[in-house]
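Reviewer comment 2.1 asked that we show a complete input and output for one of the modelled complexes. We chose the magnesium ion case, as it is the one discussed in the main text.
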Amino acid sequence: MIKAIETLLLDVPAIRPHRLSVATVNVQTLVLVRVLCDDGIEGWGEATTIGGLSYGEESPESVKVNIDTYLAPLLIGMEASQVAPAMARLRKSIQGNRFAKCALETALLDAQARRLNIPLSELLGGRVRDALPVAWTLASGDTQKDIAEAEKMLELRRHRIFKLKIGLRAVEADVAHVLAIKRALGDEVSVRVDVNQAWNELDAERGIAALEAGGIDLIEQPIRAENRAGMARLARRFTVPIMADEVLKGPLDAFDLATHAAADVFSVKISQSGGLTQARQVADIATLAGIGLYGGTMLEGAIGTAASAHVFATFSDLSQGTELFGPLLLTEDILTEPLVYRDFMLQVPTGAGLGVEIDRDKVAALRRG
Ligand code: MUC
Ligand code: MG
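Response of the prediction step:
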């Protein structure tokens, strides 16, 4: 039986300001969810947003208050080992709140997989890989700093895929910044851009043409999420793959985007999808439609990143890799043993549940209030 559900806000400083077109992240707030069951087993989940309400319509504070007030009371007393009926109850009674639902589903599946003594991935159909390629986002806003940061990552053998955040400056200035980095890093390295919706369609046509000619490998959410027809026009017009991110908020969007050929690649995010099961559904739709897959992040800490890793490890095709670098952007970790990044890959934890152990002292030290 589900006995209690606790939510905590943790404020964790970033290693450097992380600049997106919609916000600059200096401190990341993690919402941790702890589900306690009457058999003594507990499960952990996490939700993060980017820049409070700058990126989406949930904030860390709204996730906490909505779980505490509306979602948790629906779950207390339900059978803890029956995660599907518990999630069905939430989905029936609660509109929206995908991030909150995802954090709860993560905690419930973590607890259930611990109960069965299997990795969480095995509750989602089973993993087909034990390590995931991980991109790093260069977002200092400064070309030389970004090049130096990328060179350091290559030397450490941590990342050889780099995603650049653009869209704040004029198209030409952004293109010059990206192509300078691409030239400095060379052909062995994959350079991609995320415009975070900043361009209009005409800007996008100009910008993407120049980026494609300069050898850039992937263009993420170049225009407003609402302009799905524009996404389809860009996907048809260019050879360089166009990736859907902000427009993709779960299986129904995945179905619609696939139907209208509005993206070549989906960035699957567990929280944007509304949970781990729904993230799998998004991936299934992509695979059936011949759309490529990328494992996205909402800059989660270790718990959300481990949960994402368990989901992405089940994807049969993960052609574009992942960007599960969230914990590496933060100055503090909350695990007893950090996640392992080695040879350009994140190792998917193999222990029971999420396969990570929470350091309670660290959590207490970072807890808000
Ligand atoms: C996004 O839009 O992809 C993911 C990586 C990163 O640097 O920012 C996030 C959000
Ligand atoms: Mg994005």
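The pocket of MUC (ligand 1) is lined by residues 20, 50, 137, 139, 194, 196, 245, 296-297, 299, 323 (CB under 6 Å). We note this here for comparison with the apo prediction described in Section 3.2.
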